Write the structure tokens for this entry.
Amino acid sequence: MNFLSTDNRFILDTEKGAILFGGETARLLSGQQLPDKELIYITDFFTSPGPGILELHGSSKYAEFLARKQLQDSGELSEDLQLQILFTEKIDKQNCRIGYTLFTQEKNKALFELHRKSKQGFLLYDAAAAACEIYSNLKKNSPFALVLHLPQALILAAGDQKNPTQLQRYALTGEEQIFLPDAITAIDADLRMLEQDIGISVPEICWLEGLSSFDIKQTELSWQRETYFLPVQEYKFDDQTLYSGMGHVLDKLKLAQSLLPKNERRTYPLLRAEPWLWIIFLIGGLFLAATTFFLQQTVQTLDKKETNLYRKQTKLAEKTQNTLSRTRDRISDIKLEKEKIASLAQNLDQAQNAPAVSRIWNMLAEIKPVHLSLKAWQVNFFNNHLELRLEGEIRMEPDQAQRVFTEFIAQLEKNDFTVLNRTLDLNLDNNKYTLQASKKFAKQIPQS
């Protein structure tokens, strides 16, 4: 992610609270005071079950649906939790493997509200998803394991492929330095079972320090495995020192794993280009102003020509009928020019009243539910209204897709749209929809 700030600013939100790291200092975020720079926000949903790996009987095409059903049947996925699929792997024609994580909708909603109110926004990641992504991008040639150390927790990602075959969270209760050896023993035991199950050896552990108040290198680890500590940076936090290596691995996080909607993930790299975009907008504004001035001068010139021609027509009317006939032809041409001018004025008035396409897109992005994807859209402008046509998918279960579609229609009507036509095709594969709506222009009062 070379579009991030060079000082690698990031926020780590754990049981210790949300802490902003930047430069060589760290501070606890108070309220909703975010810096006016682009950054990454990594949150640990420590109250949620998971993460984990599931092997599913069925086509990878239906992996998310099958995983959701299996987790609901086992009681891990409830109504207050949300499922994020980290990766999907095809084992054979009838079986597949997925990595997943769960997070509370209440916490996620609060973070989205914080993102909406912040000036620059941020890229939001789940800590377990970040650990999985970092594991995949370390690109080792032999089986290994990655351990992400967070306050009161260790997250393990291990295996011999691009994606881990084991993804698990281990809670640390009480004083970390006291209970850390117990968690390491549990991880070592699970790695031995993994080695037996898939017939591999995991001799190397990559240790990533997420946030700690002590130097993990000074702690004796109880396993007989080679431990490679990823680079760690010290941060001054009030009167103590914090250790974290997250700033060195931010470039290994992909936009696709962010919890933000797809349209915001696509526009986030443009933050660096914002000053240039403003220059382009300024040039465009100057060009538009020059064009408007030219049109005004043209209209004034045509008005003068019309007046002169009308005077000539009055004089020529006193001449012969033949001269009068030729003069009438010229008058017809003048009327045609006048009609063109009137038509141009009407088009300019319509353009003034019509909302900008970017404003329509921003409004759709703001009111559109997260799981409702927009594949195609079309807007047509008419004399006093516009017509909007939308097509897309809702990747949810049919009953939830129906509810999300109804909420989206309600939001459109709340924004003064009249729904002309709508269709929703519900099925297990995807829920396709089409929607046609219209909206009248708000008449603007001319400035004196």
In short: The chain has three domains: 10-254, 276-353, 357-440. The chain has nine helices and 19 strands. The first strand starts at residue 10 and ends at 14.
